[in-house]
Every structure is written in structure tokens, then in C-alpha cells.
Amino acid sequence: MQKAKYYITSFLFAIAFNINAQVPTGPEIAWQRCYGGSANDFFSDAIHTTDGGILASILTSSTNGDLTGIPYSNGWIIKFNSDLEIEWQKFSGYYDCQFTANKIFQLNDESYIYGGATEIDCGENNGFLDIGLMKTDNIGNQLWQKSFGGPGTDVIEGLLPTQDGGFLLTGRSSAAGGDIPFHYPGGAGDDDAIVIKIDSAGEIIWLKVLGGSGDDGPLGDIIENERGYYIINIGAHSNDYDLADSGISGDKRWIVKLDSLGNIVDESFMSGDTDLYTYTGPTVMTYNDGFLIVGQGDPDSELYPTSPEHDSDEGAMAIFNANLDLTFYKQWGGSEFEGFARVIEDKTSGNFYFIGASASPDYDLPDNYNNGEELDYWLFATDSNFNTLWSKNFGGSDPCGDLACGSFNGNILLKDNMLYAFIKNTIPDSFPDFDIECGYERNFYFETDAWLIAFDLTTVEITEPEITEQNLFEIYPNPASDEITIKSNAKENQFYIVIQDLIGRKMYDSSLYIFAEVKINVADFSAGMYIISISDKSAILFNTQFIISP
Questions:
Q1: 82 vs 431: CA distance, rounded Å
Q2: Which residues have CB under 8 Å from 505's CB, separation 6+?
Q3: Residue 462: its pLDDT value, please?
Q4: So what's the pLDDT on residue 118?
């Protein structure tokens, strides 16, 4: 069933921004460590373990440094104890069969499942590169390893241990054959999205091919909010076959809900050229009965217009409900390029922590080490209502930026008032290079080490903001159910209040209010996102989004 994407078209909001705004600059670096050798090494994932430790995966090309004496292997697994000291480490794959882990989960029996890639020399491989799945016991000893794919290149995107005890994999496939039953006709390099249901022993139960004649592939993680139903985001360029009824030409986000047999039971579409872009594989996480996505957004978004000086991609987040409808959208950034790659939620405080990359030295960013020419890492924090708490750039000054002219790799974890980033650094010629204080001598430019960096959240100083046009008013709770409260911080206290839905219908229109605090009954509003606008007799002073919960 197709759902429409709604835009705010009835009016644009004048939102004031201050280029010199003093955003709190976030936590101090407590310590850092590097892992690898003189070739290319980087963290690909990290997870909490049930014993209070952390399990992390590294993709490595080194044969010296920490890899001295280890037979050539691309896959490296490190188990840290609760004090972040190495407890054990394993190397997956050797010359004859390389296995590299991009995704890790711990299962209920304390064993581990790893999703990644296997190369052509592995006996079960169907092609040059297959999707790999490996299970180990709780100390890293391999129990089994499987490969899935066709005669071409098959690449993993998502892995989820499902509530029935099996696994769901998503990825991209370039050709029919082997495990792939068919491939939609298209041009060279055009992939299809594939979804594979696996049983607890690693055997295929079913495999679905989704897409059309263009290039289509899954984006980010898989969601299972109810047993046996799976939500998958797909970045699609096709306009035919499975996308024939999308109503959107060109790049689009295709969200599908599959049942336990892989049948599409619901779907929605939105343009991938505006608002939330679809050319990155962002985090998708459960949020209430729906899901939250982070990635890169359009600075000219009609849903959340930013300052005209924001010229390039923004760090964006979006919330969808259980019906696959967009209910909330927000983005942050500066005058240059930004994007989010991962997000985690602190279940205690309700705060959200984002990590990505930024080239901006202004607006929502405190600085850039390359004068806006290349990307720094970007840590960003909000409260539970997605109001900014602090923003921090970190990294070094390499002319290829901190992503080494590549993409983001790794993850962030929260533990005991510390925020740990399991990422990579571009090895500098000398130390320190801004925040980079460790690394191995490199063979070539743009090579990286796996970089574990610890941020002490107790060092964050959040000061009360000055009263400006951006924070004249407070709206809470958000999300709301029956009632919202509006608190005024303004010197004057005579205002008009208007509430509209996303297609511009006026849901509430006040006469002149005189208030320092007012409560509005919203019990009759349908679940979804709304825009509240507050003005005086001459201009709009404030506007924001709020959500009515189901």
C-alpha cells in the first residue's frame, strides 16, 4: 500500500540563526588507543557484551605492528573486559578463505553471530564476493561459517537475529545464479536488494529479490518491532518492476514491511533527492512503535528549512511510525558538508548521541581542523526532544580528512559516563596531530589505524542559553498525547498561536494571548507531526515541530 509523503507547502518559516552561537563543545578526550600496523586498519563494529565488556571487529590489511607473526588475515575480533583491556582476540580467515565481519550480535546463549563478507577462495562461495555469516562460542571459537550469493558481487548491509531464533540478512546482489534466483534486467553495475531469512543453523529458509532495472540496495539496519514482521529501508533508483507504483521518478526511499515469509505487507515511498537523502547507509533504530533514521539531509528541506547559508548536506534524523509514515524530521549543520552515520540512545537520561563527519566551522559546529576543506569527525548530543546539548569536532588535519577520502566505519557505545568511539584515524606524519596521539608508521598516504577514543561525559559544561529568537518559547511534552504546555521567555507577552498539520490545515488558531505559560488541549488531534507557530502583531517569532503520540 503506497503512502504519500507530505510537505509543508502552505508557508515557510523564518528561523533566526547566529553564526557565532556558542554551542557547548562537548566532552574532553580521556584517552585513546590505536590498533593495527602500517597498512589499512579500521573498526567495523562494536557491541556491549553480557559480562560488561565489549566485542569489536576490525578489518585489517597489516602484517606488522599488532599483527606481527599473525598469518595474513583481513578479519580481527577483539574482546575487551569491563575495563577496556584486551581479554582475548581472534583472527577470522587466512590466505585460503578470508572472512571479514561488518556486523556483530551476541545471542541469548552468549555465543556471537558475525555478518560480513567471504572471498572467492572460500569453498562455499558462489562468486567473487559473497555475504558471509559466522557463529562462534563466547570465547571466539568458530562453530560454523556460511556464504550466500551469486556469481557476481554480493555485499551485506544489515543483519538481525530474529525473535524466532534465526537471522535476517539484507544486502546487494549484482547477478543471478547460485543462491540468487533472478536479477532484474538493467545496466552494468545496477544491483538488486536481497533479503535472506536464515535458520539457527545458518541454512537459507527463503530469499527475496527486490527492485527493478535501476540500482537498488538496502539502507542501514533491519527493524523487528513485532515478531515475524521486518522493516527494511531501500535506496531505489528503479521506476519499474517492484517500484512501478511508487509515484516517484528517480532516486527514492522505499520502506517495506515483510511478513515471516518475506511477503510485502506494507510499503511507503519518499523522494531521495530532498529532505533525507538515500546515498548513505545510515543507522536505523527502534523508536517507540516505529523507527528512527540518521543520515544526510537537504539544507533546502521543506520539512525543516535551515539558514540560507547552509549550502551543503546536513546531519539529519527522521522518525517514522508503525505505519511507515514520517512523523518527525530535524537536521543540523553549518555552511559546509555534514552527515550522521550512527546514533545511540541513553536509556537513563533519554539523550541521543550522534557521530558523523563535518567540514563546517560554524552554526551547529564549533570548528573544523581543515578550514572547511575536509571532514573532521563530529560528535553531537541532544536531549530526548532532540534539542541540542553540545557539538564537538575531533580528529586530525590530514588533507584527505578523517574519513581518509572514504566512508565512515565503526560504532559508538555508552558505558559508565564514557562515550567510546570505535572508528579509524588517518595516520599523521607526526604526533600529535590535533586530537590524534597514536598510530603506526604508514606505507602510503590515506592509510588508517583502528582508533578507540574515550570521551568523558562528566566534563561537559552546558550553560544556560541566552534568550534569542530561537529559544523564546519552550514546548513540552514532546511527544504529547492530551495536552501541550507553552512557556514564554520573552520580555513581551502578547502573542498569536497557530498549529498546522503537515499539509497546511489549521488545527488551532488563537486570538491574542497574554501569557507567560499556556496549556493547549490536543486530545482530539490525530497521531502525527504538527507545526506550531507563535507570532506577535508583526512577525513570526518562533516555530517548531511537535508529535502527537498514538
A1: 29
A2: none
A3: 66
A4: 87
The model's pTM is 0.83
Q: Which residues contact 473 (CB under 8 A, 6 or more apart)?
A: 486, 487, 488, 489, 490, 534, 541, 542
Q: Would you say residue 180 lies in a domain?
A: no
Q: Please tell me the predicted confidence (pLDDT) of residue 120.
A: 64
Cα 66 from chain centroid (whole Å): 30
Burial class (CB in 10 A: 0-12, 13-18, 19+), 509: exposed
What's the distance, CA 75 to chain centroid? Answer: 23
286 within domain boundaries = yes
The answer on pLDDT for 165 being more than 50 is: yes
Whether residue 435 sits in one domain with residue 286: yes
Other CB atoms within a 10 A radius of the CB of residue 259 amount to 12
Spell 475-492 as b/e; 16+ CB within 10 A means b. beebbbeeebebebebee
Q: Quick one: 326 and 415 in the same domain?
A: yes
Among candidate residues 414, 443, 463, the one where a domain is terminated = 463
Q: What is the CATH number of the domain that holds 497?
A: 2.60.40.3080
The label of the residue with cell 550512527 reads 342
Residue type, 53: G
Strands of 252-258's sheet in order across: 216-226, 229-236, 252-258, 264-271
Bridge partners, 378 (sequence order):
356, 393
3-class DSSP state for residue 65? helix
Strand pairing report for 129-136 and 112-119:
antiparallel
Domain of residue 531: give its range: 474-548
Count of structural domains within the chain: 2
Q: Which residues contact 491 (CB under 8 A, 6 or more apart)?
A: none
CB atoms within 10 A of CB 520: 16
CA distance linking residue 164 with residue 167, whole number of Å: 8
Report the alpha-carbon distance of residue 280 to residue 504 in Å, rounded: 30
